[in-house]
């Protein structure tokens, strides 16, 4: 049998055919425990055969059979996915066997296996279950002391202090070194796990981005080509002006989408640069830049942020957040209402800053509230945007350590509330 087939055979024997453990560390610990169990079965069988062939005591055979059956039981638990329970039971078995051998034949050095039992507990249980591993180490230490002193032995034992000191020092050093190694491995693994999660997120976003972006980039261009063909065939000045106006709308839509892509890229790749930002002035700049949008001049935009309100934050990301929230409020205003408004306000406190963008526009139905911050999500087919804006708001706030929430009633309006730490 080839090494690969042997490895596959042992894996299926230990974990069960078709079992998949996503956590690589858990997988390795489960496999290590399985190898130790199989080794215990092999050793138990070997010594039982030796004892039978040499005419040893029948009672010893019973002990070996008990070890084999107990090991098979823990192997069954491992195959069922109860890795921690199986590991604890196996460690108990090892300690019991070593204690029994050390108690009656201490001079043979069987007590040294307490070291392997303690180290095995650390490795198999891992850093996440270090308290269980430390408990197992304490049990191994206590059993060694009992076996060393011969507390349950009827005859008097020659106790040598130097043996106890040497064992204690070696035992402690081995446990300390392995504990430190496991801790380093654990923190490295956490970093790797976090990076893997981030990579999965980026890959998933990239797939969706390429699919949606290709559609949102091609659609306005296709419309422009169609409008150009219509304009070329028309002799009417009024029709040509109408087509030109429609082309302007398509170009604005394409420009908005490209701007959102740039904002998305800048937020993902640029480091956070904290500096004093006058929030009132930033709101003024943002609303002024957006006055070219259709219908913006018909909306009363009120900047209620205190004039002297300054916070340490990233001005670029704050501008992106404000731009998207106010942009949405303008795009989705309600044409049927005479008094249309957008109120932008802020309320500082000791540890955080809240600012909100409130409008009396079309509002968002309740069933969409928990989805509007997803990438490329559109609440309806009539949505004018790309579905990137609110996603960029959420991601930008994530970089600043903040959050955003929505309150909206369909037909009445929406309020987006942004929470930022005071030192964002």
Instruction: Order the strands across the largest sheet as they lie in space.
Output: 2-4-5-7-6
Query: Which segments are poorly predicted (pLDDT under 50) over 5 or more consecutive residues?
Result: none
Radius of gyration, in angstroms, nearest whole number:
35 Å
The major sheet is characterized as: 5 strands, mixed
Residue-averaged pLDDT: 81
Q: How large is the count of helical segments?
A: 11
Number of domains: 2
Summarize the helix and strand pattern as letters. Answer: HHHHHHHHEHEEHEEHEE
Structural class: alpha+beta
> Helix fraction?
55-70%
Number of strands: 7
Strand content: 5-15%
Identify the overall geometry.
Answer: elongated
Gap between N and C termini: 61 Å
